[in-house]
Amino acid sequence: MRSNTSLEQSLIHVVLVEDDVNFQDALIAAIETAPDIALRAMASSRAQGLRLLEQTPADVLLVDLGLPDGSGIDVIRAAHERWPTCNIMVCTTFGDEMHVLQSIEAGAAGYLLKDSAPQNMVNEIRSLHGGGSPISPQIARKILTRFRQPVPSGAILGEPREPAKPRVALSDKEQEVLECITKGFTSREIAALMSVSNHTVITFVRRIYAKLEVHSKTEAVYEARNQGLLP
Amino acid sequence: MKRAIRVFCLSLGALILLPWSVQAMATDRVLDARQPGQGAASLTEYFAILEDPGQALTLADVQKPDVAARFATVRPPAEVLNYRSTRSAYWLRLTLRNASGQPVKQMLEIGYPLLSYIELHQPAADGRYQSVATGAAKPFFTRPYPNRFFVFPLVLPARSDQVVYLRIRSTIVMQIPARLWEPEAYAAMARDDYVTQAWYFGMVTALLLFNLLLFIALRDGVYLSYVVFGICMALTTSAGNGWGKEFIWPDTTWWSDIAVSVLGAYTYAALLAFMRRLLGTRELVPRLDRLIQAFIGIHLLLSVGFAVSIETFTAPSSQIGLATLLLILFVGIYCAFVKKQRMATFFVIAYSLWVSGVLVVGLRGYGVLPPNAFTMNGWQLGSVFEMLLLAFALAYRFNMIRRKAADDVQQANAGLEARLQAREAELTRSYKLLREIELRQSLYQERQRLMQDMHDGLGSSLTSALRMAEHGRMDKDKIALVIRGCIDDLKLAIDSYEVVDADLLLLLATLRFRLEPRLEGTGIAMRWEVQAVPPMDWLNPRNALHILRILQEAITNIMRHAEATEIRVATGVRDGRVLVTITDNGKGFQVKQAQNGNGKGLANQMRRAQAIGAEIAWESGEAGTTLTLSLPVVFQADKAGAALASVPLGSLSPASPTPWLGVRPIVG
């Protein structure tokens, strides 16, 4: 019993919110090959997905954006709030950056390409659970652009003159990682270049995603203030 | 202008004026020249008068008893004898008594300067008559006492009665306001009178000079016509009140007799001309304006007529003068109250002031009003107030013009702004149209590009996979491989749409990101040795896809045929071109043979390279193969194979899309 419990505890509990039956099957098949991963529940609509969030938090939540009754972004946002320890992944067909970035801003920590090989899917889930996050050169470029704009005049000189606008800044290392990614280097190569471990590089990406989420929130607050929606 | 007075009085007070007549009295009244407390006494009631229509009687004639008996006295007593435009000569007989024991000096004043001829016959000590002949038609020096009026100093011996004869004849109008003055009182009166006149002429001169300067400064004709009118008015005044004769033309005879008529005609003409300009009657009341012009012409003709024959034209000029005064009044009132012209209101008020001055003088002349400082100088007063008000009207007019000019400028600006806005809107329209055309063109090109790409890659791969699957010649893994290749093709096509911002390395990174999973498990290692390259602005989706396809083909070929264990991707800059090299350590191939042979791969790569102005070269040996793609930093259309390639698609897209906010085409 005890060993069972410990096995139960070390399992990665996955919840899937997806209406595409083929991908459901593909994921079920992939997870069956992995003894350390368990699919705990599945929902095929936004409403079902939101209801699932009332249960015990899972370790990894996979969400498709194009749900029949609404956007998966809502599910991601709700999960980020109710299951703060859960790692959220958005399922996407081609890694289309626009939606991936929206999901990250809503609280997702990674994305899963639906056409990935089963082994890759399992690996991605493990990596995400381990604190890593996938990233593509295009996403890296967009995040860099995002943090660079809008540039207040003082920020260039390193002394922001706009105290009214709270800014989340990337650290030099995070910046460097992103720039390397846009040049095509893999996390392993970047780890070698920066003399850190591969895992460190992957967690850098996770931190960058977290900053992006905060950044988007402060941006929203700033915008709302600007438009007089907030005091 | 004195005619005008008369005309006005006639028209306004005919009933009052008509009963005036000279009535005969049996005996002359004798004036005691030494009545106590007397400053000036009107002589009218003391005159015995004889009309001499033939102008032939001499002093001796009128002293003859039969003629002397025809003298009559005036009743009721009036201040002024008024015979209007009579042709007759008048004899006035006056008996003055000095009852005192001392000789008395007195001044006999005829206060009307337009009498052409005046003779005074006064008995000397020996009883014989001494005569003085003067008048407006005689030089000034003939006057026994220098004054604008006719003044005769008399000495009355002690305890005596003197009979004085006056013979008066006038070309234009005959009024005889005769008074007897004590010398001191007369001197005091004369001094005051000259001060008054000096004030008048001083003010008029100042006004005229000021408006002349305004004309010089502003070059506005209305100021000049005001000055001309003012000069005519002042000269007429001076002719009418004797100043002209005293100070301006003292030695003239013919002129000084007709001056007031000629100058009066000019004044009318000038006033009409001034009114035309001030009120703008030509535009405001065109028909009245023609009448005004006719009147100007008539008055100019009259002035000539006066010079030719003053007697002939004096009578008709009275009617014309009256008509003119009424015309001016009518035009002024019409413009002010019907046409609602502010200028005309000023004009009517000013004009009325002057006319009232004239009226006052006229009424005084007919004895309705007593002669005092006000009635004596009514003309000057009215005239000076008129000129002041008109000057004020001119200032107001200037202000109006300035305001109108400001309004005009504002309107012009508004018009300009409207035109500018219209032009802007037009530009916006045409710009929008242009952009729509560009957009359509770019959409068409995109469609062409995608169709071509899908036809060449995805389409043919899927077709061959389908055929093989149908004939059962392909196992599950192979089909999966082909389809995976198709998905990669599709992904790269989508990637080419992503904004690469002239960043070649980002494009290469994307390629690696897509192809890396396929390398996994093949035992081929990827050496990524890219170095910074200059930005390449021509990297639009179309050109980016060409590069992606060339390099994809190269890597796929290595994976399929080269049996390599390592692929090295590097970038560099040489001779102003950006180089991308893909090197493998595989078995190599015969480049020439491959280029000419049946292998479609190399030909495709060369075609694509040509389309973007790039050069592609292979070096192959036993140690492996190196593909070198040499790209221009700046796109040169003439070096590119396809004409369409010269259109940078990025510049045609509707707006540079902000990845986060803007609308961006999403495929997939």
Fold and architecture overview:
In chain A, helix 5 links the parallel strand 6 and strand 7. Chain A is α/β, with parallel strands linked by helices and 231 residues long. The longest helix of chain A is centred in the last third of the chain and has 29 residues. Chain A contains eleven helices and seven strands. Chain B is an alpha+beta fold. Chain B folds into three domains: 169 residues, Sandwich (Immunoglobulin-like); 212 residues, Rhopdopsin 7-helix transmembrane proteins (Up-down Bundle); 217 residues, Histidine kinase-like ATPase, C-terminal domain (Heat Shock Protein 90), CATH 3.30.565.10. Helices cover 56% and strands 16% of the residues of chain B. Chain B contains 19 helices and 18 strands. In chain B, strands 1, 3, 4, 6, 8, 9 and 11 form a seven-stranded mixed beta sheet that branches. In chain B, strand 15 and strand 16 form a beta hairpin. In chain B, helix 7 packs parallel to helix 10. The longest helix of chain B has 93 residues. Chain B is rod-shaped and about 170 Å long. In chain B, 38% of the residues are buried. Chains A and B meet through helix 5 and helix 7 of A and helix 14 and helix 15 of B.
